[in-house]
Amino acid sequence: MRRRMAVLSLVFALTAPAQQVLDRVAAAAGQDAITLSAILRHLRFRSIVSGAPVQDTEANRREAASQLVDLLIVRRELELSRYTPPTMDETEQAIDAFLAEMKWTRERLASELARYGFTEEEFRREMQARLTITRFIDYRFAPGIQVTDEEVEAYYQGEFLPALRRMDPGARPPELASVRAQIEQILSTRKVNAAMEEWLQQMRQTLRIRYFDEAFRPQGGAP
Fold first, then answer.
1. Which of 27, 29, 25, 56 is nearest to 43 (CA)?
2. Domain span at residue 111?
3. N or C: which end of the chain has fewer CB within 10 A?
């Protein structure tokens, strides 16, 4: 989002004739606001991409709000860096990969989107945004990440082999050389995630983040 919505433009809640609150500010981070509708939308989208049913609970609303705060921070950094977003062709490739992983047809996707209140164009934009952020994280944090031989050996002995024994006690373990690339990728991803979390923690401390408790108490029903 290139133009951030100021808090004052969002504090006026939409109300039904009976004064039923339909939307409200749930969290504020600096001059940005996160509405309850954005949180519920995030939960619905997360349900689609995970394949798990929507769980509209206070804990999940708070987790979604925290994730949306992090997205605001990343998007702000994207604006400052003028990072070029993926093309629609690249987004379509990401959607195809998602469908292959979920074993869904395009028709199944359309059905799921309709069930959760999304159009295909909205889903496409969401996927493009998430692909943009994923690539930016790699661009911002992956350079300079190194995995040592000692770390690979420690993972192989301390995590890989024990996990293999739990899954298949009688299996003959592969040689380290044959799984080195896989282990290096896992450890590299962990380090990127750790570097990103450290950066996010620092950025959160520069913002005045406020949560409004009333918005996190579900009144019943799925979002």
1. 56
2. 84-141
3. N
CA-nearest of 17, 28, 25, 62 to 42 is: 62
Q: Could you tell me if residue 113 is inside a domain?
A: yes
Whole-number pLDDT of residue 190: 96
Distances (CA, A) of 13 to 16, 31, 72, 215: 10, 17, 21, 12
Distance CA 83, CA 94 (A): 19
Strand order through the sheet with 25-29: 32-35, 25-29, 209-211
Q: Quick check: is 50 in a domain?
A: no
Look at residue 148 and give its three-state secondary structure. Answer: coil
Local structure of residue 157 (DSSP, 8 states): I
Output the CA torsion sign for 176, 177, 182, 187: positive
Residue 129 CA to residue 67 CA, distance in Å, equals 14
Structure tokens at 120: 């295909």
Is residue 152 in some structural domain? no
pLDDT in tens, 109-130: 999 999 999 999 999 999 998 8
Q: How many CB atoms lie within 10 A of CB 155?
A: 20
Structure letter (DSSP) for residue 32: E
Dist. CA 65–CA 70, nearest whole Å? 9
Number of domain units in the chain: 1
DSSP classification of residue 207: S
